[in-house]
Specification:
The complex is a heterodimer of chains A (about 500) and B (about 160). Chain A is α/β, with parallel strands linked by helices and about 500 residues long. Helix content of chain A is about 40%, strand content about 15%. Chain A folds into four domains: about 5-95, Glutaredoxin (3-Layer(aba) Sandwich); about 120-325, Rossmann fold (3-Layer(aba) Sandwich); about 330-420, Ubiquitin-like (UB roll) (Roll), CATH 3.10.20; about 425-505, de novo design (two linked rop proteins) (Up-down Bundle). In chain A, the strands form four sheets. A five-stranded mixed sheet of chain A has the order 2-1-3-4-5, with helices on one face. A five-stranded mixed sheet of chain A has the order 13-12-16-14-15. Chain A has a four-stranded parallel sheet with strand order 8-7-6-9, sandwiched between helices. In chain A, a hairpin with a 5-residue loop joins strand 12 (about 335-345) and strand 13 (about 350-355). In chain A, helix 6 runs parallel beside helix 10 (about 200-215) and helix 17 runs antiparallel to helix 21 (about 495-505). Chain B has about 160 residues and is α+β, with helices and mostly antiparallel strands. In chain B, about 40% of the residues are buried. Chain B contains seven helices and five strands. Chain B has a five-stranded mixed sheet, covered by helices on one side. Chain B is elongated, with a radius of gyration of 18 Å. Chain B has helices at about 5-20, 25-35, 45-50, 55-65, 85-90, 90-105, 145-159; strands spanning about 75-80, 110, 115-120, 135, 140. The chains are: A alpha/beta (about 500), B alpha+beta (about 160). Chains A and B meet through helix 1, strand 12, strand 16 and helix 17 of A and helix 2, helix 4, helix 5 and strand 5 of B.
Amino acid sequence: MTNTVFVPKDASALSLGADAVAQAIQAEARRRREPLQLVRTGSRGAFWLEPLVEVVTAGGRVGYGPVSAEDVPGLFAAGFLKGGAHARALGPTEQIAWFKNQQRLTFARVGIVDPASVPDYVRNGGYAGLARALAMEPAAIVQLITASGLRGRGGAAFPTGIKWKTVLEQSAPQKYVTCNADEGDSGTFADRMLMEGDPLTLIEGMTIAGLAVGATQGYIYLRAEYPHAHRALNTAIAAAYQARYLGEDVAGSGRRFDLEVRLGAGAYICGEETSMLESLEGKRGEVRVRPPLPAIKGLFGQPTIVNNVITHASVPWILAHGAEAYANYGMGKSRGTLPVQLAGNIRRGGLVERAFGLSLRELLYDYGGGTATGRPIRTIQVGGPLGAYIPPAHFDTALDYEALAGVGALLGHGGIVVFDDTVDMAHMARYAMEFCAIESCGKCTPCRIGSTRGVEVIDRILAGEDGERNLRLLEELCETMVQGSLCGLGGMAPFPVQSALKHFREDFRAHK
Amino acid sequence: MKTLAPAEHDAVRRIVAQLRDRPGPLLEVLHAIQGELGFIPEGAIAPVADGLNLSRAEVHGVVSFYHFFRHHRPGTHTVSVCQAEACRSMGAVALTAHAKRTLGIDFHQTTPDGRFTLEPIYCLGNCACSPAVLIDGALHGRVSPERFDALIAQHTRKS
């Protein structure tokens, strides 16, 4: 019997040498005349175990990791193809505590299936949601999404069903479904992992959205920093066309849905939905004044759904299993699951998909195992570069949109960046302003000018010039930006600065 | 106004002709030009504007808005060092200083031998394996200064 070996080709796994491992496995198998089938998957998201190699045994998939190319001859000698004992052996992969307690709905197939294979996708439950959607009236699909309680996973947490209903109610010659895959927040990689590891889930979700609102054209707006995801998406889209899940006759229904990827060009602001639409139209990514909402007047002036990758990718599961099954997960007004990303200075970093309601402490210590450096955690930043810095006193806060807002923080796209006690919070505050200055689209003054002035004021504080007066000035400047900016970039860039001032004021003194 | 070499001019005209009928084609056109020529030459602005029925100001405005589009020919290898928070939590500031010192250049500059261009980048989605570096589209994680030197040495041999 030919043995099957799984090696990820997720960008993070590649960044740790997964390609060299795959090549070593093939070379060693040839040398030993051992027939094997090598399948390149996405990553299961336990990056401290990457490259994580899996083999199929009678008892299911068994893992070895982290594996380096040098380990490969020894693995063969230990009989790893049959699950043999080895220092890198992890046992049945899904029994590893880190995976076992997760609730993977959206990420159910990531790291398991061949991302380029439609048959593999269908064998593992794919396109069941589309089949149900094709038997439903558009309004019933929208109603189902509303009932599931799904909220936008990009960060704004707007109820998805309400957005879809608005688009459904418009009458227009052309409607669009767009996917915001401009995942620019530091500490986030859920979109990337999904697009590389199970892109057909995103494609299926967008197809269902098209059926629900009467849109026949979809665009995925992907950031240029994700070349691996770009290739994975294009391969999967071609496979979906080939299998007639995209195109003029979706799954034999007579309904049309076309989909293509458009590349961004390194502008963080294009993660803001109106800026993304401008960019999709081939223009400068300057934000639009709302109203009108994109749902009414969006891409090329037509009614447009704009949803994040994870939002779209949650839809097939909801269709396949029902709104109630999804809404049974979660707490309060945050229903379903959230793929949390543990990043930065963390021992066991990676992707944890769990129902809303888990505490930050459980994530940081039970899953994450504390810092990678072994030093105490001083602070975490949740929700990307516009998110507040949270001190350990708030680590018992639950992962829930409203609970985090209650401690002056935001959940955003679910990224958590961990810092140990060597972090200089004045420098992090300065970086927040600097980043805003680099990425400001320039349309409104508080953001364009305020961010540059913010860097200068912090520099003066650090140089010991009139510290108290400049600290007050910085606070006023933050307030002006929050109140006066046109969009979330200038309006939220002060959050990390304000939280650093509030919780770590001792760092804002003269630096040598 | 600068003019293009004949081969560059042909490439630009071919790309514009191929993509001009797509909806909102300008970014697609610019990506294709940079993909083929390595950067967006100033002399490409006018033929792109003509071909897409836009003003030169509009085209220039788009080229200059996006960090990804280059105005100069890059070195043989482009080295992008992530500057964002997750990488900062794992020593990206020190790694950046090391990279600048080792290559002897600042961000947006190319080594005198034309081998390496150094760029800042803001998140590569490799945040659980920080700090991250991208070299010619290949991603590297947990890059210590020693690992950085080894990567540069590999690429020095290759070029």
